[in-house]
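Quick log. Single chain, no ligands specified.
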Amino acid sequence: MIRAYKFLMRPTMGQRIALSEMLRDHCSLYNGALQERRDAYRHASKTKVRYGQQSGQLKEIRAFDPERQGRWSFSSQQATLRRLDKAFAAFFRRLRSGVTPGYPRFRGATWFDTIDFPKDGDGCRWDSTPHDPVTRVRFQGVGHIKVNQHRPVVGKVKTVSVKREGKRWYVVLTAEQAKPDPLPTTGSAVGVDMGITHFLASSDGEFIPNPRHGQKAAAKIETAQKALSRFGRVRRDKRTSHHRRAVQKVADLHRKVRRQRLDHAHKTALALVRKHDFIAHEDLKIRSMVKAPAPKPAPDRPGGFLPNGASAKAGLNRSISDSGWGVFLTILHAKAESAGREVIVVDPRNTSRTCPQCGHVDKENRPSQERFACVSCGHVAHADTVGALNVLRAGLVRREAPAA
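-> predicted structure:
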């Protein structure tokens, strides 16, 4: 199996400058390749430029511009061109499926924060020597950078990436390792229901509160954004160190919220994996759930619109995004795979409207957000617990169903 490791780097000032130049030059390569594809399609009878053609031009580009392109790793530049090729492949895939395609865009200096090295030892070298107390990673054109390695890397390192987050620099490794031994079995099965009031409700009656990290930090982020907006009205060439500090303040606040969500997701997923052998959850289409409602044109007022609940839906969308369901479910699946646990996804339709006692399905069974009262048999319970019970039952049925 493949596992990723992310470590904080401690570059010197000269190495920070070199890393920034490496990002800048790879960004320039990405934008130049994108411009070539656009020009070829527009002006050369809709000719499509492929990755193989652009990769074949790298040798000439490096010879033409040795100061900016020739000093960096050839394989990392190929990885940057592959990233553009994947962006176009995703664009055409969305176009064929009928969703909003989103044409690949040019990257600004602050939009290009990652460089990939496809193979350890080709333009980079992860150097974790047992007898050396200081771990280092070497990049071509930058040198050996100290790394804060907070845990050992198990397995053979396959790929290495450089990532910039604000003023911090990270190295991201992927290592191939043997599948770990599964955790001891507990004989327990659970269904979970994701929500807003409670982050998670389980079928055994447990509730995990929603931390609402984004809502708690909203006032500080709003103040920092207002301070930044005042500097944003100044011309770019007139901006001062105050503007840079305002940008950094906003980035630090968002970074703290993101790390808090990750920490909560890791701890919650780990507790579930340690306690249960089988976990069932709803197949949530989060991207569709946070879409804004379509406008309603007013038939009697040309150019006017009727109320469509967009304001209330915007508040719900913020709460869903603040909960971080997608991150949590991704982490849950990864931890379950490592621990030898089974996770099954079920259809979420009517899970909160079905009575677990008699099976009656009716929207009137849920008179309020938290209360479930069956109109057929009179069963009363917490609505989220009922939803989790129905998710567990659907998951068990799906697990026992014969393969198609």
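The radius of gyration is 26 Å.
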